[in-house]
Amino acid sequence: MRVLGVDPGLTRCGVGVVEGIPGRPLTMLGVGVVRTPADAETADRLVAIERGIDEWLDAHRPECVAVERVFSQHNVRTVMGTAQASAVAMLCAARRGLPVALHTPSEVKAAVTGTGRADKAQVGAMVTRLLRLDAPPKPADAADALALAICHIWRAPAQNRLQQAVAVHRAMKGRTA
Amino acid sequence: MRVLGVDPGLTRCGVGVVEGIPGRPLTMLGVGVVRTPADAETADRLVAIERGIDEWLDAHRPECVAVERVFSQHNVRTVMGTAQASAVAMLCAARRGLPVALHTPSEVKAAVTGTGRADKAQVGAMVTRLLRLDAPPKPADAADALALAICHIWRAPAQNRLQQAVAVHRAMKGRTA
Q1: Is A14 exposed, middle or buried (0-12, 13-18, 19+ CB in 10 A)?
Q2: Which of B43, B70, B94 is opposite residue A90, by nearest beta carbon?
Q3: For chain A, which residues make up each domain, given as ranges?
Q4: Where are any strands of DSSP class E within B36-127?
Q5: pLDDT, tens digit, for every residue of B92-118?
Q6: Do B91 and A46 touch (CB under 8 A)?
């Protein structure tokens, strides 16, 4: 499975592509950051993020896109921009028919470090180890995007089983309604 | 000036097109709601909103799009969806090179009723009167979209003067830097 992970943000949107299956060594295919100037209009920044994400999708043809789930409890000043950037990432993927998975920051941390309360350095260290890199990817947004992709590769089998169960439940409810 | 107003939301995205200039009677060219099913995946809902907004832009060719500015102080459960829907509206407009204006709910209320603390009914009543309609547009999201467009037509001259002043200031700063 090839996954594009997106750590959404208006100023820095981390992107990372990882390929692999659970229980086997993972391979990093690419990592980077889509940046937009802080003094540009929000609408123009969203267009630049769309262009950047589309370029990553064209270049790497992932089967799935994993995006960080944004919570409104976060920093009030930045959360709106994060929500808007995540909307663009989801839109770019769904428009191509690619499945979009959302993972919370603690799910991602727990997946790669074993604890949902890990700090940035710990996540960076584990991403470096799991992908056999020479150094942690910089900036942290890039490392977080790779961690999201890894988290999705490892969690997807369980998530798919859950979605199938929900679909079966809905179908049965429809039949008895 | 022809303006598309967008009251963003995932479940109901109000859209309304108004044409006019300050100090002259205004004309409504269209009003409606882009709806997406609450049980669909967020990514698919964003694609449906994109399609809906693009259809309105194609049909009415506005010169400008006015979108409600979303604040994170609002209802925590709905604010993320509102931010995401507003991102799609801004993206659709900016991708076509259309200017995007953001107005706060109290700016819109103050523009059409004279007070920033007006309720939904008061806004609906003034929209009905200003556009010479037979009845207030339903649902409230549709009336709010028209109010946004009216607000923009009336505020745009002042906003343009402000933007020109900022541009001149930046250009002068650049020259002395």
Answers
A1: buried
A2: B43
A3: 2-176
A4: 64-68, 100-103
A5: 999 999 999 999 999 999 999 999 999
A6: yes
What's the Rg (C-alpha) of chain B? 17
CB contact under 8 A, A72 and B70: no
Cα–Cα distance measured from residue B80 to residue A104, given in angstroms and rounded to the nearest whole number: 14
**What is the DSSP secondary structure assignment for residue B6, as one 8-state letter?**
E
CA–CA separation, A123 vs A135, rounded Å?
A: 12
The complex's ipTM works out to: 0.83
B19 known member of a binding site: no
Alpha carbon distance B115, B117 (integer Å): 5
Q: Which residue has the tokens 């700016």?
A: B107
Quickly tell me which residue has 């556009």 as its tokens.
Answer: B131
Cβ neighbours of residue A79 closer than 8 Å, sequence gap 6 or more:
A70, A71, A72, B72, B83
pLDDT along chain A (177 residues), means of 10: 97 97 94 97 97 98 96 70 95 98 95 93 96 94 97 82 71 63
Q: Cite the beta strand spans of chain A per DSSP E.
A: 2-7, 12-19, 27-35, 64-68, 100-103
3.30.420.10, 2.60.120.260, 3.40.640.10, 3.40.50.970: which CATH number matches A2-176? 3.30.420.10
Would you call A43 and B100 a contact, using CB atoms and an 8 Å cutoff? yes
Which helix (H) or strand (E) segment is B64 a member of?
strand B64-68
Per the annotation, binding residues of A are 7, 68, 141
Note if A54 is an active site residue.
no
Chain B nearest-CA residue for A101: B43
pLDDT at B67 over 70: yes
Please identify which residue in the block is written with the tokens 């750590």.
Answer: A7
The model's confidence at residue B75, banded by pLDDT at 50, 70 and 90, is: low
